[in-house]
């Protein structure tokens, strides 16, 4: 399995590209947000949904809100 990591400063996201996941022959991308702002994270999630070709690609987006009490 190969991992390639890249940081994009504008969106503050880490992009990981993975290959060799079980039987899946398409592309798999994992995005982990470094931002704790839910509005930024939801906006990125919406942008991916509207702009990414999801027919032969799986995307996992991991993010969390700011810690609260």
Features:
elongated; disordered N terminus; 69 residues; single chain; 4 strands; alpha+beta
Overview of the molecule:
InterPro entries: aa-tRNA-synth_II/BPL/LPL, LipoylTrfase_LipoateP_Ligase. One of its GO terms (molecular function) is lipoyltransferase activity. One of its GO terms (cellular component) is mitochondrion. This is Lipoyltransferase 1, mitochondrial. It is a single chain. The chain has 69 residues and is α+β, with helices and mostly antiparallel strands. The protein contains one helix and four strands; from the N terminus they run E-E-E-H-E. It has one helix at 38-51, and strands spanning 3-8, 13-18, 27-33, 57-62. The longest helix is centred in the middle third of the chain and has 14 residues, at 38-51. It starts with a strand and ends in a 7-residue tail after the last strand. The model is unreliable at 1-15 (pLDDT under 50).
Average of per-residue pLDDT values: 72
What is the N-to-C order of secondary-structure elements (H for helix, E for strand)? EEEHE
Strand order of the largest sheet: 1-2-3-4
Radius of gyration: 13 Å
């Amino acid at each position: 399995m190969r991992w390639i990591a890249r940081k994009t400063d504008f969106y503050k996201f880490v992009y990981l590209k993975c290959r060799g996941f079980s039987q899946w022959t398409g592309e798999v991308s994992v995005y982990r947000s470094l931002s704790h702002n839910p509005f930024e994270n939801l906006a990125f999630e919406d942008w991916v949904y509207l702009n990414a070709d999801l027919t032969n690609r799986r995307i996992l987006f991991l993010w969390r809100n700011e810690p609260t009490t």
